[in-house]
Specification:
Layout: H1 2-29, H2 32-39, H3 51-64, E1 69-73, E2 82-86, E3 91-94, E4 100-104, H4 110-120, H5 124-149, H6 168-181, H7 183-197, H8 199-209, H9 228-238, E5 243-248, E6 257-262, E7 273-277, E8 284-288, H10 295-300, H11 303-308, H12 313-345
Antiparallel strand pairs: 1-2, 1-5, 2-3, 3-4, 5-6, 6-7, 7-8
Helix pairs in contact: 1-4, 1-5, 1-12, 3-9, 4-5, 5-7, 6-12
Pfam families: PepSY_TM
InterPro entries: PepSY-ass_TM
Protein name: PepSY domain-containing protein
Length: about 350
Protein backbone atom coordinates (compact mmCIF):
# COMPACT_ATOMS: atom_id res chain seq x y z
CA UNK A 1 0.00 0.00 0.00
CA UNK A 2 2.89 2.34 0.73
CA UNK A 3 4.29 1.84 -2.78
CA UNK A 4 0.87 2.50 -4.34
CA UNK A 5 0.48 5.66 -2.25
CA UNK A 6 3.92 6.86 -3.40
CA UNK A 7 3.13 6.12 -7.06
CA UNK A 8 -0.20 7.93 -6.75
CA UNK A 9 1.49 10.99 -5.24
CA UNK A 10 4.30 11.23 -7.79
CA UNK A 11 2.10 10.52 -10.82
CA UNK A 12 -0.46 13.05 -9.59
CA UNK A 13 2.25 15.68 -9.10
CA UNK A 14 3.64 15.12 -12.60
CA UNK A 15 0.18 15.31 -14.23
CA UNK A 16 -1.30 17.96 -11.97
CA UNK A 17 -0.86 21.04 -14.15
CA UNK A 18 -2.25 19.28 -17.24
CA UNK A 19 -5.25 18.01 -15.27
CA UNK A 20 -5.89 21.50 -13.89
CA UNK A 21 -5.91 22.92 -17.43
CA UNK A 22 -8.12 20.12 -18.76
CA UNK A 23 -10.55 20.39 -15.85
CA UNK A 24 -11.01 24.15 -16.07
CA UNK A 25 -11.20 24.27 -19.86
CA UNK A 26 -13.62 21.33 -19.93
CA UNK A 27 -15.93 23.04 -17.44
CA UNK A 28 -15.99 26.22 -19.51
CA UNK A 29 -16.69 24.27 -22.71
CA UNK A 30 -19.98 23.13 -21.18
CA UNK A 31 -20.99 26.78 -21.59
CA UNK A 32 -19.94 27.00 -25.25
CA UNK A 33 -23.45 27.13 -26.75
CA UNK A 34 -24.66 29.81 -24.30
CA UNK A 35 -21.52 31.81 -25.15
CA UNK A 36 -22.25 31.53 -28.88
CA UNK A 37 -25.80 32.71 -28.25
CA UNK A 38 -24.48 35.64 -26.25
CA UNK A 39 -22.00 36.73 -28.91
CA UNK A 40 -23.84 35.76 -32.13
CA UNK A 41 -27.41 37.13 -31.97
CA UNK A 42 -28.66 34.89 -34.80
CA UNK A 43 -27.86 31.82 -32.67
CA UNK A 44 -30.60 32.66 -30.18
CA UNK A 45 -33.42 31.52 -32.45
CA UNK A 46 -34.36 27.99 -33.40
CA UNK A 47 -34.26 26.50 -36.89
CA UNK A 48 -36.80 24.16 -38.46
CA UNK A 49 -34.95 20.98 -39.38
CA UNK A 50 -36.63 20.33 -42.74
CA UNK A 51 -34.49 18.91 -45.59
CA UNK A 52 -35.57 21.71 -47.91
CA UNK A 53 -34.64 24.57 -45.55
CA UNK A 54 -31.38 22.96 -44.44
CA UNK A 55 -30.43 21.98 -47.99
CA UNK A 56 -30.97 25.52 -49.23
CA UNK A 57 -28.80 26.83 -46.38
CA UNK A 58 -25.91 24.48 -47.21
CA UNK A 59 -26.19 25.42 -50.89
CA UNK A 60 -25.95 29.10 -49.92
CA UNK A 61 -22.94 28.48 -47.69
CA UNK A 62 -21.11 26.68 -50.48
CA UNK A 63 -21.92 29.45 -52.95
CA UNK A 64 -20.18 31.98 -50.69
CA UNK A 65 -16.99 29.87 -50.41
CA UNK A 66 -16.78 27.67 -53.52
CA UNK A 67 -14.62 24.60 -52.99
CA UNK A 68 -13.69 25.63 -49.45
CA UNK A 69 -16.42 24.06 -47.31
CA UNK A 70 -15.44 20.78 -45.65
CA UNK A 71 -18.56 20.17 -43.60
CA UNK A 72 -21.47 21.93 -41.94
CA UNK A 73 -22.97 21.09 -38.57
CA UNK A 74 -26.58 22.03 -39.10
CA UNK A 75 -28.54 24.42 -36.95
CA UNK A 76 -31.46 23.14 -34.93
CA UNK A 77 -33.97 24.07 -32.25
CA UNK A 78 -31.25 24.61 -29.61
CA UNK A 79 -28.74 26.65 -31.63
CA UNK A 80 -29.92 28.80 -34.50
CA UNK A 81 -26.69 28.99 -36.52
CA UNK A 82 -24.87 26.50 -38.71
CA UNK A 83 -21.27 25.71 -37.75
CA UNK A 84 -19.09 25.75 -40.87
CA UNK A 85 -15.70 24.02 -41.15
CA UNK A 86 -13.47 24.98 -44.06
CA UNK A 87 -10.72 23.02 -45.79
CA UNK A 88 -8.04 25.44 -44.53
CA UNK A 89 -9.14 24.69 -40.92
CA UNK A 90 -11.00 27.98 -40.57
CA UNK A 91 -14.39 27.84 -38.92
CA UNK A 92 -17.47 30.00 -39.16
CA UNK A 93 -21.10 30.57 -38.25
CA UNK A 94 -23.86 30.94 -40.81
CA UNK A 95 -27.41 32.19 -40.30
CA UNK A 96 -30.42 29.92 -40.72
CA UNK A 97 -30.67 30.89 -44.40
CA UNK A 98 -26.98 30.12 -45.04
CA UNK A 99 -25.67 33.67 -44.92
CA UNK A 100 -22.10 33.51 -43.60
CA UNK A 101 -21.89 35.65 -40.46
CA UNK A 102 -18.28 35.23 -39.38
CA UNK A 103 -15.23 33.24 -40.42
CA UNK A 104 -12.28 32.77 -38.09
CA UNK A 105 -9.16 30.71 -37.42
CA UNK A 106 -9.65 28.00 -34.76
CA UNK A 107 -8.13 30.10 -31.97
CA UNK A 108 -9.45 33.55 -32.93
CA UNK A 109 -12.66 33.24 -30.95
CA UNK A 110 -12.81 32.34 -27.26
CA UNK A 111 -14.72 29.08 -27.72
CA UNK A 112 -12.32 27.91 -30.45
CA UNK A 113 -9.25 28.77 -28.38
CA UNK A 114 -10.74 26.97 -25.39
CA UNK A 115 -11.49 23.86 -27.46
CA UNK A 116 -7.96 23.76 -28.86
CA UNK A 117 -6.58 24.18 -25.33
CA UNK A 118 -8.74 21.37 -23.95
CA UNK A 119 -8.31 19.01 -26.88
CA UNK A 120 -4.70 19.66 -27.90
CA UNK A 121 -3.14 21.98 -25.29
CA UNK A 122 -2.61 24.39 -28.23
CA UNK A 123 0.12 22.01 -29.44
CA UNK A 124 -1.40 20.25 -32.45
CA UNK A 125 -1.16 16.48 -32.83
CA UNK A 126 1.48 16.17 -30.11
CA UNK A 127 -0.79 17.92 -27.63
CA UNK A 128 -3.63 15.68 -28.75
CA UNK A 129 -1.69 12.57 -27.71
CA UNK A 130 -0.56 14.16 -24.43
CA UNK A 131 -4.19 14.96 -23.57
CA UNK A 132 -5.26 11.40 -24.36
CA UNK A 133 -2.53 9.93 -22.17
CA UNK A 134 -3.36 12.36 -19.37
CA UNK A 135 -7.01 11.31 -19.53
CA UNK A 136 -6.19 7.62 -19.17
CA UNK A 137 -3.68 8.41 -16.41
CA UNK A 138 -6.27 10.55 -14.63
CA UNK A 139 -8.71 7.63 -14.60
CA UNK A 140 -5.98 5.40 -13.12
CA UNK A 141 -5.28 8.04 -10.47
CA UNK A 142 -8.93 7.90 -9.42
CA UNK A 143 -8.73 4.12 -9.06
CA UNK A 144 -5.46 4.15 -7.13
CA UNK A 145 -6.71 6.99 -4.95
CA UNK A 146 -9.78 4.94 -4.04
CA UNK A 147 -7.63 1.92 -3.18
CA UNK A 148 -5.34 4.04 -1.02
CA UNK A 149 -8.33 5.60 0.75
CA UNK A 150 -10.22 2.39 1.58
CA UNK A 151 -8.13 1.29 4.60
CA UNK A 152 -8.55 4.77 6.11
CA UNK A 153 -12.19 5.33 5.13
CA UNK A 154 -13.02 6.59 8.63
CA UNK A 155 -10.94 9.71 7.88
CA UNK A 156 -13.50 10.88 5.30
CA UNK A 157 -15.18 14.20 5.99
CA UNK A 158 -17.43 16.68 4.22
CA UNK A 159 -14.90 19.52 3.91
CA UNK A 160 -13.71 19.93 0.31
CA UNK A 161 -11.98 23.29 0.63
CA UNK A 162 -8.96 23.43 2.96
CA UNK A 163 -9.02 25.68 6.01
CA UNK A 164 -5.61 26.96 4.97
CA UNK A 165 -3.36 26.50 1.95
CA UNK A 166 -0.24 26.39 4.10
CA UNK A 167 -0.91 23.23 6.11
CA UNK A 168 -0.34 19.97 4.26
CA UNK A 169 -2.82 18.07 6.45
CA UNK A 170 -5.63 20.43 5.38
CA UNK A 171 -4.72 20.08 1.70
CA UNK A 172 -4.52 16.30 1.89
CA UNK A 173 -7.84 16.13 3.73
CA UNK A 174 -9.59 18.27 1.12
CA UNK A 175 -8.00 16.31 -1.72
CA UNK A 176 -9.18 13.05 -0.14
CA UNK A 177 -12.72 14.24 0.60
CA UNK A 178 -13.25 15.86 -2.80
CA UNK A 179 -11.83 12.79 -4.52
CA UNK A 180 -14.26 10.47 -2.76
CA UNK A 181 -17.28 12.69 -3.45
CA UNK A 182 -16.49 13.23 -7.15
CA UNK A 183 -14.75 9.94 -7.95
CA UNK A 184 -17.39 8.66 -10.38
CA UNK A 185 -17.84 11.76 -12.58
CA UNK A 186 -14.10 12.50 -12.61
CA UNK A 187 -13.34 8.89 -13.56
CA UNK A 188 -15.92 8.97 -16.37
CA UNK A 189 -14.66 12.31 -17.71
CA UNK A 190 -11.01 11.19 -17.70
CA UNK A 191 -11.66 7.74 -19.17
CA UNK A 192 -13.99 8.90 -21.94
CA UNK A 193 -11.66 11.77 -22.81
CA UNK A 194 -8.71 9.44 -23.27
CA UNK A 195 -10.85 6.90 -25.15
CA UNK A 196 -12.04 9.56 -27.60
CA UNK A 197 -8.48 10.68 -28.37
CA UNK A 198 -7.30 7.10 -28.99
CA UNK A 199 -10.52 6.29 -30.84
CA UNK A 200 -9.16 3.63 -33.20
CA UNK A 201 -7.72 1.56 -30.37
CA UNK A 202 -10.82 2.10 -28.23
CA UNK A 203 -13.18 1.07 -31.02
CA UNK A 204 -11.17 -2.09 -31.63
CA UNK A 205 -11.25 -3.00 -27.93
CA UNK A 206 -14.97 -2.25 -27.60
CA UNK A 207 -15.84 -4.25 -30.72
CA UNK A 208 -13.78 -7.19 -29.46
CA UNK A 209 -15.34 -7.04 -25.99
CA UNK A 210 -18.92 -6.84 -27.27
CA UNK A 211 -18.95 -7.92 -30.93
CA UNK A 212 -21.79 -7.37 -33.33
CA UNK A 213 -22.59 -5.81 -36.71
CA UNK A 214 -19.91 -3.31 -37.77
CA UNK A 215 -20.23 -0.21 -39.91
CA UNK A 216 -19.35 -0.78 -43.58
CA UNK A 217 -16.64 1.17 -45.36
CA UNK A 218 -17.65 4.23 -47.43
CA UNK A 219 -18.46 3.15 -51.00
CA UNK A 220 -16.94 4.51 -54.21
CA UNK A 221 -18.88 7.35 -55.81
CA UNK A 222 -19.03 9.53 -58.87
CA UNK A 223 -17.82 13.10 -59.04
CA UNK A 224 -19.67 16.38 -59.15
CA UNK A 225 -21.00 19.20 -57.01
CA UNK A 226 -23.58 18.02 -54.52
CA UNK A 227 -27.09 19.36 -54.77
CA UNK A 228 -27.79 19.51 -51.06
CA UNK A 229 -31.54 19.98 -51.37
CA UNK A 230 -31.82 16.61 -53.11
CA UNK A 231 -29.09 15.00 -51.00
CA UNK A 232 -30.65 15.89 -47.65
CA UNK A 233 -34.10 14.88 -48.90
CA UNK A 234 -32.73 11.48 -49.95
CA UNK A 235 -31.07 11.03 -46.55
CA UNK A 236 -34.27 11.93 -44.74
CA UNK A 237 -36.18 9.39 -46.84
CA UNK A 238 -33.67 6.70 -45.78
CA UNK A 239 -34.27 7.46 -42.07
CA UNK A 240 -37.63 9.28 -41.83
CA UNK A 241 -37.58 9.53 -38.02
CA UNK A 242 -34.01 10.84 -37.76
CA UNK A 243 -32.83 14.47 -37.51
CA UNK A 244 -30.40 15.86 -40.06
CA UNK A 245 -27.23 16.99 -38.25
CA UNK A 246 -24.16 17.23 -40.50
CA UNK A 247 -23.39 17.55 -44.21
CA UNK A 248 -19.84 16.79 -45.39
CA UNK A 249 -18.46 17.25 -48.89
CA UNK A 250 -16.47 14.38 -50.49
CA UNK A 251 -12.98 14.23 -49.00
CA UNK A 252 -11.39 13.30 -52.34
CA UNK A 253 -12.39 12.44 -55.92
CA UNK A 254 -14.38 9.23 -56.01
CA UNK A 255 -15.53 9.54 -52.38
CA UNK A 256 -19.18 10.03 -51.43
CA UNK A 257 -20.73 12.99 -49.66
CA UNK A 258 -21.59 12.13 -46.07
CA UNK A 259 -24.70 13.08 -44.13
CA UNK A 260 -24.86 12.44 -40.39
CA UNK A 261 -28.23 11.96 -38.71
CA UNK A 262 -29.47 11.44 -35.17
CA UNK A 263 -32.09 8.79 -34.62
CA UNK A 264 -34.38 8.70 -31.58
CA UNK A 265 -32.47 6.89 -28.86
CA UNK A 266 -29.02 8.08 -29.95
CA UNK A 267 -27.10 10.08 -27.35
CA UNK A 268 -24.54 11.70 -29.64
CA UNK A 269 -25.68 15.28 -30.40
CA UNK A 270 -24.81 14.88 -34.09
CA UNK A 271 -25.81 11.24 -34.30
CA UNK A 272 -23.77 8.34 -35.60
CA UNK A 273 -26.24 7.30 -38.27
CA UNK A 274 -24.69 7.90 -41.70
CA UNK A 275 -26.03 8.21 -45.23
CA UNK A 276 -23.55 8.20 -48.13
CA UNK A 277 -24.61 10.17 -51.18
CA UNK A 278 -23.26 10.04 -54.74
CA UNK A 279 -22.33 13.65 -55.56
CA UNK A 280 -23.00 13.10 -59.25
CA UNK A 281 -26.71 12.38 -58.88
CA UNK A 282 -27.55 12.44 -55.11
CA UNK A 283 -28.35 8.72 -54.98
CA UNK A 284 -28.05 6.94 -51.64
CA UNK A 285 -25.03 4.63 -51.98
CA UNK A 286 -25.07 3.16 -48.48
CA UNK A 287 -26.01 3.75 -44.88
CA UNK A 288 -24.87 3.09 -41.33
CA UNK A 289 -27.71 2.49 -38.89
CA UNK A 290 -26.16 3.45 -35.54
CA UNK A 291 -28.93 1.67 -33.64
CA UNK A 292 -28.12 -1.63 -35.37
CA UNK A 293 -24.41 -1.67 -34.57
CA UNK A 294 -22.88 -4.12 -32.10
CA UNK A 295 -23.13 -3.41 -28.39
CA UNK A 296 -19.46 -2.43 -28.18
CA UNK A 297 -19.72 0.23 -30.87
CA UNK A 298 -22.99 1.54 -29.47
CA UNK A 299 -21.27 1.88 -26.10
CA UNK A 300 -18.35 3.70 -27.71
CA UNK A 301 -20.76 6.12 -29.39
CA UNK A 302 -21.96 7.14 -25.92
CA UNK A 303 -18.49 8.28 -24.82
CA UNK A 304 -18.56 11.73 -26.42
CA UNK A 305 -21.99 12.76 -25.09
CA UNK A 306 -20.99 11.50 -21.63
CA UNK A 307 -17.73 13.44 -21.80
CA UNK A 308 -19.19 16.67 -23.17
CA UNK A 309 -22.43 16.77 -21.19
CA UNK A 310 -24.60 16.27 -24.28
CA UNK A 311 -27.04 13.84 -22.70
CA UNK A 312 -29.30 14.14 -19.68
CA UNK A 313 -30.15 17.82 -20.07
CA UNK A 314 -29.10 20.61 -17.76
CA UNK A 315 -28.71 18.27 -14.76
CA UNK A 316 -25.94 16.27 -16.41
CA UNK A 317 -24.39 19.45 -17.83
CA UNK A 318 -24.06 20.60 -14.21
CA UNK A 319 -22.41 17.28 -13.28
CA UNK A 320 -19.84 17.69 -16.08
CA UNK A 321 -19.24 21.35 -15.20
CA UNK A 322 -18.66 20.54 -11.53
CA UNK A 323 -16.67 17.43 -12.41
CA UNK A 324 -14.23 19.54 -14.42
CA UNK A 325 -13.83 21.96 -11.53
CA UNK A 326 -13.29 19.03 -9.17
CA UNK A 327 -10.58 17.61 -11.44
CA UNK A 328 -8.80 20.97 -11.43
CA UNK A 329 -9.10 21.27 -7.64
CA UNK A 330 -7.85 17.71 -7.08
CA UNK A 331 -4.81 18.44 -9.22
CA UNK A 332 -4.15 21.74 -7.47
CA UNK A 333 -4.57 20.48 -3.90
CA UNK A 334 -2.55 17.34 -4.61
CA UNK A 335 0.34 19.19 -6.24
CA UNK A 336 0.51 21.85 -3.51
CA UNK A 337 0.51 19.30 -0.70
CA UNK A 338 3.18 17.29 -2.55
CA UNK A 339 5.42 20.35 -2.89
CA UNK A 340 5.01 21.22 0.79
CA UNK A 341 6.02 17.65 1.72
CA UNK A 342 9.09 17.72 -0.53
CA UNK A 343 10.16 21.12 0.81
CA UNK A 344 9.98 19.91 4.41
CA UNK A 345 12.08 16.86 3.57
CA UNK A 346 15.04 18.93 2.49
CA UNK A 347 17.84 18.69 5.06
CA UNK A 348 18.68 21.92 6.82
CA UNK A 349 22.39 22.73 6.30
CA UNK A 350 24.32 22.43 9.55
CA UNK A 351 25.95 25.58 10.81
CA UNK A 352 29.69 25.55 10.48
CA UNK A 353 31.48 25.15 13.84
CA UNK A 354 33.48 28.23 14.87
CA UNK A 355 37.18 27.83 14.29
CA UNK A 356 39.49 28.09 17.31
CA UNK A 357 41.68 31.13 17.36
CA UNK A 358 45.32 30.40 16.61
Amino acid sequence: MGLLRTLHAWAGAILALILVVLGLSGSLLVLRDPWVKLTVPEARGGVAASPRALGAAVQAIQAQAPGEVRNVTLAGPHLGVHRVYFTDKDQGYAAADGRLLVRFAPTERAEGWLFELHHRLLAGETGDKVVGAAGIAGALLVLTGAIVWLPAWRSFGARVWPKTLTKRADLVGSHRNLGVITALPVFVLCLTGGAIIFHETTQGLMAAAAPGPAAPKPPAAGEGEVNWLRALSAAQAAFPDATLRMASTPGKPGAPATIRMKQPGEWHPNGRTVVWIDPSDERVLGTVDAMALGAGMRAYNSFYPLHAGKVGGIAYEAVVFLGGLALAALGGFGLWSFLIKQTRRRPVPAKAAPQAAE
